[in-house]
Protein: Response regulator
Amino acid sequence: MSLGQQLAPHLPLLRRYARALTGSQVEGDRYVRAALEAIVAAPDEFPRDVDARLGLYRTFQAIWQSTQWDDAEATDESGSDQESIARRRLSRLTPLSRQALLLTTVEGFPPEDAAYLIGEDAARVAELVAEAVQEIERQTRTRVMIIEDEPLIAMDLEQIVRDLGHDVTGVAVTRDEAVALAMEDRPGLVLADIQLADDSSGIDAVKDILAEFSVPVIFITAFPERLLTGERPEPTFLITKPFQRETVKATISQALFFDEATVPA
Structure:
């Protein structure tokens, strides 16, 4: 099997990681392309002593870490509004702790693998994750709307949201309910399932809501590969079913990390 064939199944998940790390589809995909170009340019330098996914993320990490210091030195006026928000967050949270958080709780790497990827030991990874969770939770508080037609899953999501210190505006089970609830009580974050009770789409519900006002959205689906094809507009934040509670917590924190409404004064 060629190296390209080995890497292909892991690209959708790497795009998810890159987008969560940067808070941007465009920027995240740009870093993924840079990593792939580096592999194509020097295939002999690709890590062969680890599995393909770990080697792919390692190459991405090298690209990311080589550029983050230049990005951190840029002024807020030189970038987008989203980049300005990120810089204000990053002044309170080190990039390394965010990487440790995402790699372990969202991407599912064990601490030993995350340590390999960021150049630390496993004990330090655990410390970084704890620091990141505490600081992001302190920085971000909002009101969350849940679009989910499975009662038990909705209850679980609601509990997770409240455990993080957020309020829940309500739970909608159809597209029409979701839009009506959003218009009645505007949320600061939306958690949206893809397939809803009346065979309507959570994606369409979100499109209707975003046509009225801007709000960060996290999609939840059992089939993430259907939304991470690289062939159409794709979600920045995506959770795979069945999900782990820590994954939901980390993704909520990351989505709010880039949201202007929750930036501390």
Q: What stands out?
A: Residues 69-78 have pLDDT under 50 and may be disordered. The longest helix spans residues 52-73. The chain has twelve helices and five strands. The CA atoms of residues 45 and 149 lie 48 Å apart.
